Backbone:
């Protein structure tokens, strides 16, 4: 294919603004997928992605399109994760493109994530093709949304295609704009190989399949390749293009093209997103810019409810890790929960998705501890330690000062809810920076917030206080000194290590009290009275009491119906198996989960 | 010897808390047809020559059966089973459908024990329970039963009723003891799903109040000479319900009639809750448990009795030998361990589900 007839682009959209539906329509229109094979939202092939309407992993597909002028084009559509947790992945996907189609809902306008990703695209010099979707909705106001795009993003949008991906209206116009507005790729096919890794997946037969954009040079089957950041070298077994349903092998891929490499790679850790692939025999002089190693931001302990399932949990994490190098985990032991893993995630959504996949795809019942961030503790002896597990927090006597990560957060909210949003941010120790109106009815509130306040249940609280209308985006700003304390929870006088957490001193009392209340609601009565206490150091700051169980009896036996009685007792016995025994107190899984959502 | 249970699924009116199977008794022909089917079902056991030492008419409202119908059933049963001369033959009787002549007739037919569903001595509470009788009628019924010659009379009491206080419980229990009955069954009201009570917004005593009511009731009954022999049952010495003891001692019994349960030949089975099908002669029997874990049943049933379990017997049935260890961990407030014997205290009775499910 002539390079002038190649277009590499991605689609940027907020959740529910119709990215996947538009991608489906484009696939239909380019006959990449036969209609009978069409399954809604083809690119999102994980169940969770379809249900949540989000893209977790990047993905790419090569499409053939015959333009209205009769010319044949090749489109490489690179799907990007839409969430801030995957910001770095997004930036690498963008780096593989020359342009981006920005999809905005005609009734809702621009949302925080959309804007963040659009700015990211503009930083990468991508040409933006704005598209207004959902014009079929009665509440659609495309004129207003086009003005908003011009005002907020500062790109011309008055002639943006107005489409309905759902109804299939004006999709062709979008593709024509891709041809006219987005430049074709450049690059020297003869130069030493430089290919950008923007994604990788694990295939049990082929090993790791690496998705690349060839920036310079040509890659042939049999070439020896080197991953420049990790130094790993392999011989290429297979190269090709990505179809929507399968891979097409070819003998070589050239500068400007998007394709895949299979080279019997066993460890996905060798193929880091953002790394540069070069030819090991005639390497390029320096790698592409922008590579960085992504580090987990949020940590939590994951334990099987049934301790015997520990090996199953390890297998499941190993398998998820094959496809997700950003997930980190290492064994940890809790007195309360037994054997489990300390897992690191890119962010909250990443954490939720991993937990959900472990439970759903691997059929595991899990207990998750409260998410923690990495605290920086400066000790009196001059040493600095980083703490990701509250259990390991040093004794206050040896702490000189403590720092916590803070973020720059942008919250987009309808004007009606600004008061609620500000109240929430105040409660979460937010520092107000500024506010600007996107239009007469919506505002962008900029706050600096401690990360540990948002990893908790900030997003849920934001949604519930804005009737689901607000959107939210953040980036790490750095560390700031803070007055932190470790709060312990005692059950029947014993510290439950899995419930300890780090909190700002001013909030310790309220948080401790709330946790005690939540635990009281969620721990059933026992044969004896159980005190629940919150303590800082040795000092008790809150207490609740679970009264002793007084009555749990089956009175009458219906005409000798013993089996029904037996079933009830057996069910009760089974229920006990699902509980954790802490000392002599039986604690259900729900109790651990309840302390993760305190705002309810 | 085994027990026979005959379910009589008819009521004049359904009580709003009750989830036992019963239908409105429309006419006498329906009852006759039912009696006919009961005897057909009994006939199926004839070849087994089973020995019986207790017969129990439960319901529903067995006292809707006439003397003639009871007579016909007992005569028919006598042809199919060997009923012991000293068998305990109980009928549940609703105080509203009991009069001297009927009770006299029951004695003539062979009934020798009456269980009155008295429930409370407060007419307000009886009304809230949807009962057809008031306490005066209950008193008269017990008096009539004694006059007719019954020497073994039981009364049911329900506690933890909507709006009931501790004082209310005390008064009911005392009033019913004063009727001079030999046996009292006391049930803590449990609101079952799918009953009208479940849909009402009742103000019921909480679990702590229930527990206090129960313990107070136990004290009153014991100080009046009643033995607390099972979680919900109290009797004067020698008047324990032989029939109900079979359930708790995991002995066998045959149930006849719609929605009755049986444990026979080491198999548990029951008839479905389907009167038309039963009357039609359809097979409505369902086998529910062929491979009974006898140790488990012994444990869960016998711990309901104040006599408790014999560890030796439990082990001989295949029970786990960690039973002492588990019992000790629960503590003597709830469990008494005495050599071979383990039994529940009264406080243990109140939380018996929790304790048994730990021991299972």
Residues:
């Amino acid at each position: 294919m002539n390079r002038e007839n190649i277009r590499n682009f991605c689609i940027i959209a907020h959740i529910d603004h119709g990215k996947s539906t538009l991608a489906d329509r484009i696939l239909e229109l380019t006959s990449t997928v036969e209609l009978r094979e069409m399954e809604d939202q083809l690119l999102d092939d994980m169940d969770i992605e379809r249900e949540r309407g989000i893209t977790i992993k990047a993905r790419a597909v090569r499409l053939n399109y015959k333009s209205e002028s009769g010319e044949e084009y090749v489109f490489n559509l690179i799907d990007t994760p839409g969430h801030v947790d995957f910001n770095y992945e997004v930036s690498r996907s963008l780096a593989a493109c020359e342009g981006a189609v920005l999809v905005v809902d005609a009734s809702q306008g621009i949302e925080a994530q959309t804007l963040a990703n659009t700015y990211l695209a503009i930083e990468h010099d991508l040409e933006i093709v704005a598209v207004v979707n959902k014009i079929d909705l009665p509440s659609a106001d495309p004129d207003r949304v086009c003005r908003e795009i011009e005002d907020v993003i500062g790109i011309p949008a008055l002639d943006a295609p107005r489409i309905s991906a759902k109804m299939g209206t004006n999709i062709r116009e979008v593709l024509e704009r891709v041809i006219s507005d987005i430049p074709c790729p450049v690059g020297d096919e003869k130069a030493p190989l430089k290919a950008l890794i923007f994604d990788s997946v694990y295939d049990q037969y082929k090993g790791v399949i690496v998705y690349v954009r060839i920036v310079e040079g040509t890659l042939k089957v049999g070439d020896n390749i080197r991953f420049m950041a990790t130094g790993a070298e392999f011989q290429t077994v297979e190269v090709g293009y990505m179809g929507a349903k399968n891979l097409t092998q070819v003998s070589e891929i050239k500068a400007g093209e998007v394709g895949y490499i299979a080279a019997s790679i066993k460890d996905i850790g060798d193929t880091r997103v953002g790394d540069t692939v070069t030819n090991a025999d005639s390497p390029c002089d320096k790698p592409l810019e922008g590579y960085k190693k992504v580090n987990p931001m949020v940590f939590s302990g994951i334990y099987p409810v049934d301790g015997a399932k520990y090996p199953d949990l390890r297998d499941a994490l190993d398998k998820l890790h094959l496809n997700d190098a950003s997930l980190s985990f290492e064994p940890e032991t809790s007195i309360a929960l037994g054997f489990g893993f300390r897992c690191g995630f890119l962010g909250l959504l990443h954490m939720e998705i991993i937990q959900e996949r472990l439970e759903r795809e691997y059929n595991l019942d899990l207990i998750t501890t409260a998410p923690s961030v990495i605290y920086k503790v400066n000790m009196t002896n001059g040493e600095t330690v980083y703490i990701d597990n509250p259990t390991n927090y040093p004794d206050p006597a040896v702490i000189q000062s403590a720092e916590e990560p803070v973020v720059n957060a942008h919250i987009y909210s309808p004007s009606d809810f600004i008061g609620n949003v500000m109240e929430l941010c105040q409660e979460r120790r937010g520092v107000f920076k500024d506010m600007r109106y996107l239009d007469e009815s919506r505002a962008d509130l900029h706050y600096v917030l401690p990360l540990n306040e948002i990893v908790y249940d900030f997003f849920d609280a934001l949604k519930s206080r804005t009737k689901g209308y607000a959107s939210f985006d953040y980036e790490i700003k750095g560390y700031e000194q803070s007055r932190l304390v470790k709060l312990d929870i005692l059950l029947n006088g014993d510290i439950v290590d899995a419930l300890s957490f780090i909190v700002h001193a001013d909030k310790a009392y309220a948080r401790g009290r709330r946790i005690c209340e939540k635990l009281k609601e969620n721990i059933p009565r026992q044969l004896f009275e159980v005190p629940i206490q919150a303590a800082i150091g040795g000092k008790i700051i809150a207490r609740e009491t679970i009264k002793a169980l007084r009555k749990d009896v089956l009175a009458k036996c219906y005409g000798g119906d013993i089996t029904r009685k037996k079933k009830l007792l057996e069910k009760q016995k089974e229920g006990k198996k699902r509980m954790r025994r802490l000392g002599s107190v039986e604690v259900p899984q729900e109790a651990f989960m309840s302390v993760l959502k305190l705002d309810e | 010897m085994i027990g026979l249970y005959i379910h009589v699924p008819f009521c004049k009116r359904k009580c709003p808390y009750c989830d036992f199977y019963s239908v409105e008794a429309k006419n006498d022909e329906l009852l006759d047809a039912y009696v006919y089917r009961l005897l057909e079902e009994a006939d199926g056991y004839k070849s087994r020559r089973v020995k019986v030492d207790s017969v129990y008419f439960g319901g529903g409202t067995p006292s809707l059966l006439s003397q003639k119908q009871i007579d016909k059933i007992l005569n028919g049963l006598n042809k199919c089973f060997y009923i012991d001369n000293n068998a305990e033959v109980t009928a549940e009787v609703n105080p509203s459908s009991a009069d001297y002549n009927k009770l006299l007739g029951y004695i003539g037919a062979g009934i020798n024990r009456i269980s009155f569903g008295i429930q409370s001595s407060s007419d307000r509470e009886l009304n809230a329970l949807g009962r057809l009788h008031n306490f005066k009628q209950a008193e008269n019924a017990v008096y009539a039963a004694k006059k007719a010659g019954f020497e073994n009379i039981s009364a049911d009491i329900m506690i933890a009723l909507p709006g009931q206080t501790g004082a209310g419980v005390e008064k009911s229990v005392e009033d019913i003891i004063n009727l001079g009955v030999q046996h009292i069954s006391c049930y803590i009201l449990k609101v079952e799903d799918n009953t009208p009570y479940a849909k009402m917004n009742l103000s019921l005593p909480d679990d702590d109040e229930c527990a206090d009511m129960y313990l107070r009731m136990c004290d009153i009954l014991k100080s009046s000479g009643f033995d607390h022999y099972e979680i919900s049952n109290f009797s004067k010495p020698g008047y324990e319900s032989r029939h109900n003891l079979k359930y708790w001692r995991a002995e066998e019994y045959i149930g006849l009639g719609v929605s009755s349960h049986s444990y026979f030949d080491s198999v548990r089975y029951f008839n479905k809750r389907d009167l038309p099908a039963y009357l039609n002669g359809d097979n409505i029997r369902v086998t529910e448990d062929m491979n009974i874990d006898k140790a488990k049943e012994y444990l869960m049933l016998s711990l309901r009795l104040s006599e408790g379990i014999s560890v030796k017997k439990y082990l001989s049935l295949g029970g786990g030998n960690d039973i002492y260890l588990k019992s000790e961990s629960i503590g003597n407030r709830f469990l008494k361990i005495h050599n071979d014997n383990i039994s529940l205290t009264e406080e243990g009775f109140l939380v018996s589900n929790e304790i048994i499910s730990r021991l299972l």
Observations:
- Confidence is low (pLDDT under 50) at residues 38-42 of chain A.
- The radius of gyration of chain A is 27 Å.
- The first strand of chain A starts at residue 6 and ends at 13.
- Chain A is about 25% helix and 35% strand.
